[in-house]
Design brief:
Layout (H helix, E strand, L loop, with lengths): L1 H112 L1
Length: 114
């Protein structure tokens, strides 16, 4: 009986050692899979961050270029407005001079006809 008990006990111990060994192997495999997945996700995250940084730099460059273009256009509009004011003032002066000349000529005409 004792030998049967010891044999059974030995068998149980062997079975438990195998199960423990299998559990450790399974745990190691899971840890390796998790580690591999983590590395993959970290790599993807880094790639996405790099792409995001590049896109942000491109967008910022585009914004700066647009701001510069806008400033240049505003300056052109300001210059054109000044030129229009100068032209309008010049035309008003010419118009006043022409009226004065016409008035003078009308007066001379009236003086000669009377």
């Amino acid at each position: 009986d004792r030998s049967v008990f010891n044999s059974s006990k030995d068998n149980d111990m062997d079975r438990l050692h195998r199960q423990l060994s299998e559990a450790r192997e399974a745990q190691t495999v899971k840890e390796q899979e998790q580690s591999s997945l983590l590395k993959k996700l970290e790599c993807e995250n880094r790639d996405i961050r790099e792409e995001f940084t590049v896109r942000m730099m491109e967008k910022n460059s585009k914004i700066v270029a647009l701001e510069q273009t806008l400033a240049a256009q505003e300056q052109v509009v300001g210059n054109m407005s000044s030129e229009m004011d100068q032209l309008q003032n010049g035309m008003e002066k010419v118009s006043v001079q022409r009226r004065a000349e016409i008035e003078e000529m009308s007066q001379e005409l009236m003086d000669r006809t009377s």
